[in-house]
Amino acid sequence: MYLHFGAVLVFLLFSVAFVAIIYGISALFRPANPSAEKLTTYECGEIPFGGSWIQFNLRYYLIALVFLIFEVEVVFLYPWAVVLRTIGAFAFWEMIVFLAILLVGFAYVWRKGDLSWFTPSGSGHTDATFSGK
Amino acid sequence: MNAYDLAFYLIAAMALVGAAITVLSRRLVYAAFNLLLAFLGVAGLYALLAADFLAIAQVIVYVGGILVLLLFGVMLTHRIYDTTLKSVRVQPLLGGLVAAGVAVLLIRVAWNTPWNTTPELAREPTTAKIGEAFMKHYVFPFEFVSLILLVALIGAALIGRSRAPKSGNGR
């Protein structure tokens, strides 16, 4: 088991070292000659204005919350998938019950329009395949 | 000092540095990104303790999920417009006292607890055993987790939505 995580560690160390070396080399050899124009944020040739930190739409937060819940669900799927063959039908139905309970929540957020994007405009669902009334 | 100890100190230092910067940084975005370092360090400690499933779950849930949520939380704040978004220190004396008290308590507990050390035999993949336990001995708690997740999902959607504009359903 440690061997697998050792491989992860080696990858981590290599990637960190790689970035550090590349940046170090380029810092050594490039000419440093900054001017106001060079330091401006590149925005496709346009002159940038305002801050780059905008306030995000609150809907992103809701989507992230829903994502987090189903991510935890997926974490529970892994140990189940490993032993599914050895235990058999009982494990299968147990997971079906598990998923069915969570499917209620999925149906709830779908029905309430949390997953469709343009509902705040007041024109209803943009998802044509689902006609929530 | 063997390779195991070296890895432990390296990872523990990473977690501690990340946590320290998270607490001490005045800029919220820096704090959030250093929390990533702390979470990864904790995942590494789990891996060193032969809890492989827990380590991966830590990476998936905390690094991949909760941290994204936190970053959204930072970016959703109104005061993001002025880039002086900083954390402030209030009541340093009282807070310091409480923190010192908690530290004393934690150290005492850690010192006095008879820790079970992992035998060499146990250092094998744990995912199958966890799955077996879920499917055989802890069937009801396992299904109950689903119920808790359902409640969390509906509650989060309800709270998260309440300040958003009314949904198109008019409900």
SSE topology:
The complex is a heterodimer of chains A (133) and B (171).
Chain A: H1 2-29, H2 36-39, H3 58-87, H4 89-111
Chain B: H1 3-24, H2 28-48, H3 52-76, H4 92-112, H5 127-136, H6 139-162
Helix pairs in contact in B: 1-2, 2-3
Written overview of the protein:
The complex is a heterodimer of chains A (133) and B (171). Chain A has four helices and no strands. Chain A has 133 residues and is an all-alpha fold. Chain A has a domain at 56-130: Up-down Bundle (Methane Monooxygenase Hydroxylase, Chain G, domain 1). Chain A is flat. Chain B has 171 residues and is mainly alpha-helical. Chain B folds into two domains: 1-87, NADH-ubiquinone/plastoquinone oxidoreductase chain 6, subunit NuoJ (Four Helix Bundle (Hemerythrin (Met), subunit A), Up-down Bundle), CATH 1.20.120.1200; 124-160. Chain B contains six helices and no strands. Chain B has helices spanning 3-24, 28-48, 52-76, 92-112, 127-136, 139-162. The longest helix of chain B has 25 residues, at 52-76. Chain B is globular and about 50 Å long. The N and C termini of chain B lie far apart (64 Å). The relative contact order of chain B is 0.07. Residues 166-171 of chain B have low confidence and may be disordered. The chains are: A mainly alpha (133), B mainly alpha (171).
